[in-house]
Fold these 2 entries.
Entry 1:
Amino acid sequence: MAHTKTPAGMALMALAFAAIQSCSYSIKVANQSGTAQPDPMNREMGFYNGKEVKVIDTVVNLSLLQNGAMVIPDCGRCGFHSVEYKITFGAMLRNTFTFGKRKSIKVKYVCTKTLNQ
Amino acid sequence: MANIKITHTTQWDNFHFNGPFPLKTHYDIDTNRNIRTLINRFNDSAAEIQKLIQDSLDCNERLRAYGSAWSLSNVAQQGDRMLYNARLNIQQEIKDEQLHELTPHLSENLFFFQCGTTVKEITEYLFDKGKSLKACGASNGQTIAGAISTGVHGASINEGSIQDCVVGLQIIIGPGPGDIVYLERETEPALNDEFAVSINARPIRHDGLFNAALVGLGAFGIIHGVVLEAEDLYLLKRYVKKIKPSEALEIAASMDFDNAAFRILEETNPDGTVTIPYHYKLYINPYKATEDFVTEIIYKKPYRSDYPDPVPFVKKAIFKDIPTWVSNFAAKHKKLIPKILDALKSEAFPEVDETIEGTLGEIFWDTSQSSAAFGCAFGIDNKDSTKALKLFIELMNEKGPIPGILSMRFVKQSAATLAFTKFPVTCVLEVDGIPWKANQDMISLDDFLTEVIKSFTANHIGFALHWGKNAPWGFPGLIDTMFGDKDDEWKDMRSALLTKQMADMFSNDFLNTIKLADYRTQLTGDALAARTLVTANG
Ligand SMILES: Cc1cc2nc3c(=O)[nH]c(=O)nc-3n(C[C@H](O)[C@H](O)[C@H](O)COP(=O)(O)OP(=O)(O)OC[C@H]3O[C@@H](n4cnc5c(N)ncnc54)[C@H](O)[C@@H]3O)c2cc1C
């Protein structure tokens, strides 16, 4: 424990932290057209402010995904407004230790606002 | 039956976190999509809103409709009950047989939108019909009812603000069967009485009433339907140039593009005259005001489809999600503010010498700014623009610095009684930035804007403030300073349309602060004529 408090230990920890951070990332893809399904009570700084955000945070058997897509029924005909795919260090570890048989999925998505035409 | 989600709460906030404000009950209404015909679905929403009004009356509580909560002032807030209406987005074309016999409009240009339809939804819907809005703001997230209620403008020199293309308003003014009205101007009728009947409304044609209700600040009842005049789809060609301050301000004060020293070669005719731009906007760093101004000049062009997608280039908005700690840091080390703003210039200003083309909806696309922000806009006569800018910059340097950047847009006068674009050509002098915590060294935003008001008044610069933006709304005598007798006209018309009880239902703190909430029992002249029309078969 004492070792971590030395300058070298701290540097090592910082390096490990940086490595973990760089393994964790997220990518957002958003549709140029259409309006996001709103959620007036969702006040959070940034991209999701005022939008209705849905989250898939699960671990699935690979076979479930290999056979096709994960089907999301709740966006209706207007489809997705945006999708964010997140990879965390923990998820990568799980993938490694299960030899890829179990995949962590962390996806945030926003549907397109339903039309009334 | 339209679906209403009820949330009991204690507070509510707007899009840019200018609150939180107190709130007891939040209503989130959506149309009932199981109702097949759009007009029945539309009428069902209105009936449901009327029930909500009755319930609010029974509980002795106020009710206020709001849209995207994009207003930075508390104009949309009300402590009892707030009705979120941005899911009410029915969109319809107008048919020939719905036109009024005296209308100057073509049915192909008229469209009927439910109150919560956003500007983006409207531009996309119109695009599919080969049409476009005449004007919009710098971005597209406002609802149509919210946008007209505060007088949202862009920099459209010849078209004016969004409310200026509205030709009909369906408003719910109470819970009873006769309490849905359809307002138009008498001198510019659009749709016939059968149309009004089809939306369960009583037609009322009166210029003064219509003009007052147009920029109604949510105080004329619940606007449920809006008839807009659109035009054929067009392209906007945007140039971004640097112009010497003296030349840019010369144009600002005169709007004389023909004789200006600055000209764009591609927009100059062989005879030496120039094309008059659709839009003219100056971006100004107040701490380096002698630098050339970044200037956005946009020309209207016939539509064609073979142009490159402009959206990747327009993603820039003033102050993209800059965290508030930047401004709080700046408030502690205020000498750094000019340096910070200079460093952020590339985020805040469009790229110089970049020319793009796109539709109105593409050029004024989504905002990327969704964090804490402040914005204040003074509407002034363009002839005063140089003097006003000088005073503003002096105050920013003397009383500040404050973390904000200036811009100037130019907008045609609006016919709406309380439109803040009230001058023949209104120069909208704006400051946008990130809010900060005032301290003993750093002036608060309200105090700073109070200094601006005092300075403009002392220097005889007439002004009106954007209703949906930050301002010291409690400044003594502000409404009369801004509007003279116009606010009386507005109050008279509001009193002509609403009963005293309903006028109170649709009031809020903002109206009280600015002194617009009072009700007139005794009416004369035009307002009395309007009341007679309202009560005639109500
Ligand atoms: C990112 C951003 C960019 C902006 N750009 C511009 C710009 O370029 N030009 C400009 O002029 N302004 C601009 N603004 C200000 C903003 O557009 C206005 O304040 C506008 O009114 C907000 O529309 P909204 O739908 O959010 O309405 P809200 O803010 O929700 O409400 C505004 C007013 O409308 C009333 N209202 C809403 N719906 C109804 C209804 N159905 N019946 C009766 N009253 C109703 C509310 O009670 C309130 O008084 C900007 C704001 C933001 C956040």
Note: The pocket of flavin-adenine dinucleotide is lined by residues B 15-16, 64-71, 75-76, 85, 115, 137-139, 142-143, 145-147, 149-150, 152-154, 217-218, 222-223, 367, 369, 466, 468 (CB under 6 Å).
Entry 2:
Amino acid sequence: MTNTAVETPTPAAMKVSDEVAIQISQMNKWYGQFHVLRDINLTVNRGERIVIAGPSGSGKSTMIRCINRLEEHQAGKIVVDGTELTSDLKNIDKVRSEVGMCFQHFNLFPHLTILENCTLAPIWVRKTPKKEAVETAMHFLEKVKIPEQANKYPGQLSGGQQQRVAIARSLCMKPRIMLFDEPTSALDPEMIKEVLDTMIELAEEGMTMLCVTHEMGFARQVANRVIFMDQGQIVEQNEPEEFFNNPRSERTKLFLSQILGH
Amino acid sequence: MSNTHADTVLYVRDTMLEQQAPPSSTVGPVGWAKDNLFSGWLNTALTVLSSLFIAYLLYRLIPWFVSPTWDGSSLSNCREILDGHEGACWGVIRDRWQQLLFGFYPPELYWRPILTLVLLLVALAPVLYTDYVTPKLLYFSAAFPFLMPWLLWGGTVWMPLMAAAGFAIGFAVFTLVSRLLNAGISISVAAAVAVLWWVLLAAPVANGIASVLPLALEPVASRDFGGFMLSITIGVTAIGCSLPIGIVLALGRRSDLPLVKILCVGFIEFIRGVPLITLLFVASVLLNIFLPPGTNFDIILRVMIMVTLFASAYMAEVIRGGLAALPKGQYEAADALGLDYWKAQRLIIMPQALKISIPGIVSTFIGVFKDTTLVSIIGLIDPLGLANGIRADTAWNGIYWELFIFIGAVFFIFCFSMSRYSMYLERKLQTGHR
Ligand SMILES: Nc1ncnc2c1ncn2[C@@H]1O[C@H](COP(=O)(O)OP(=O)(O)OP(=O)(O)O)[C@@H](O)[C@H]1O
Ligand SMILES: [Mg+2]
């Protein structure tokens, strides 16, 4: 998995514009006394695909969860699509409806069918008419290649299928940015591929993506930047080729040697 | 083929085995009995002993139950019929069953509580059996809480209609205000307006209309209510109101707003810390001291409020258990999709939390229904109170079991139905196969 399609040329669609999608400046966060994120500065342009890596407990999840305010930051500034995240609920709702998120454990709603999972937010948040919402949902379910499961419940699907439903569910809100928090780390190897393929397809369509993952093959293939975090800080960021072949910091080297199994 | 292994490690199966039936001694009734009743000497001994015990009980009980005293007109008359044999005196049930069911409700008006019970079942149908009953009936379910008191207590139809109007007014105020202000404030304003309407305006307006257009049923006083009709009226009201109030209290207890949280915790812990009987005494005696003199606050209504509050506190804790059992990921997924607090609660959290809590909720329901017998302590004549009254009659003085068996059987039918329904609901809501 480490060297899938290293030679794949970047598709033309994967262009990055100059427009800023996410701007994080001097962001700090504490859990009680524990300084979990320290002076995070990060600018993401529209169409950029960023992979975030780092050892366990380094604050990767916390950082991307700050972007849609699942976690609150105590200092610094986060601006998403021109909307600054403050305690103003209107802004938070606005950002959340524009930012999709996929979780490690899928978090599908087990009491609703796959189709209902996908149409719920469009109907109740975007006020889309039901018929249109169903059409959109079927469109995205086809895209993640499981339209035939639409009337089943999440508990009846495999992990990989559930994660693809979770991606479809986010896409139904037509988000401009997608966040992924270790979307494949709860999956068996053969299911990882089906989820990664879906994500690669999404990347090729120009979606702005931030992805916490340890799938380095995926990082090489689609990322235009890899960010390495440790102890709540961004330690190194670089283009994937450079990052993997020529890591600068000692921590990165150590991490890569562990994760690539040398 | 079977000994290939002995010769070499390589093993290839060349014929596949057909499916075979399991040995006959392990299936069917014989197999079941062998597994469950006679699987060892201890088990066999216990089976034999308990069968003997059950047989003995039935041998003694059946003759007592099957006793030809249905027409007995008094306990001594029963004894004559039985002529020295042991047996129940069922005559008391024949003589007094109407009283046990309706208390002192005027017999010519019995059709009203009966109609109310039938309509109650109709109103419950679309709520309980969503798969089989058209949701249009829910409009009737919504109207039923206003229809029920009118049918039971009688009086002018305008009073319940004005009470219903309070909800309509509150809702209208909410829609208007929520355009300008946030949901929390709008709800408070709407509630305040509705309460003002009920307290100050509803009665005069109802009386005003009634004087022009008198549409009324013959009124029945609360002191004439009794028997199972009373238990069911109080029980159904408390059950119906405690669920929504319990949900609100449970959410309040988990709220981030300190004031809301303190209020809810205080209420729940206070009510749970006090016996229901104390609350009933408060309802029957103390409230009169605090209320302005001359206010006529119906005793059954007071009891209903107390029982409802009591049930709500327990309900809140049961539902809080369900909420706590939900994985945090469900809240996060709802947040991440942009659902606001109320939508997330209504569409994602509550359906799952309530489903988890079904056994606890139904236990609370059953408990509340049975607790309605406690109202006999403050002088309302529930079935148990009536039983005591009947035994004070010279004709039936000395009778015990027959009345209590009858009352117990009726309670059992209600409680067992609730329990069976909850099992049906759990099976129905089962999704997935984990
Ligand atoms: N709710 C919380 N309260 C207190 N500490 C927390 C909380 N959530 C996370 N932490 C701590 O913050 C640090 C960063 O956690 P985070 O989940 O962001 O790490 P991560 O980089 O995503 O790790 P992993 O790869 O294991 O998912 C960890 O040390 C964790 O123990
Ligand atoms: Mg994490």
Note: The domain at 70-105+225-434 of chain B is CATH 1.10.3720.10 (MetI-like fold).
